[in-house]
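General statements about sequence and structure are easier to judge against a single worked case. For one protein, we set the task of working out the structure tokens from the amino acid sequence alone. This step matters because it turns folding into a mapping between discrete strings. The amino acid sequence and the backbone structure tokens for this protein are reproduced below.
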Amino acid sequence: MRIIGVDPGNAVTGYGVVERTSAPLYIAAGAIRNQKIGRGPRRLAALYDGLIEVIDKYTPDVMSLERNFVATNVQSAFTLGEARAIAMLAAAHRNLNVFEYTPTDVKLTIAGYGRADKRQVEQMVRRTLTLDDAPLIHDATDALAIALCHAFREGLGNAVRAAETREAELRRKPLRAVRS
């Protein structure tokens, strides 16, 4: 399964693409920068076009997106909400299911601590994807962490579902007496 993680932002939106195999595999990461475009609809259109281009290039199966957080600045919250909506629209236009994770969920899954700082998350992303010295910007690192969060949680979910299925099958089978 190929996953695109998106760290939405109005001026800079990070993206990270990973493949979930036996061990997560790094495919790509980068940022869509549109702060020079101005504000409002043009900037949102540029973000949409950039996301569509990335989705078409790397053909992910699903999108993992950072869920809103409570912001002290209402205008910042609205702006972030617009960027999230554009990411969801791009996913919908490419028939991708969207999975959302809070920043705390991502940090807990990646670094084992829900209040991990950016450096700790970056170190774990690098270690997990064996990206020792590869240059990564923060927005791309965050997006990779979001993609990895989905990869790990989906993998865990599949393992739990498989175990539940095996358990249900065992309950349905009649027990045979064992003779000594």
About this structure: The domain at 2-172 is CATH 3.30.420.10 (Nucleotidyltransferase; domain 5). The chain has one domain: 2-172. The mean pLDDT is 86.
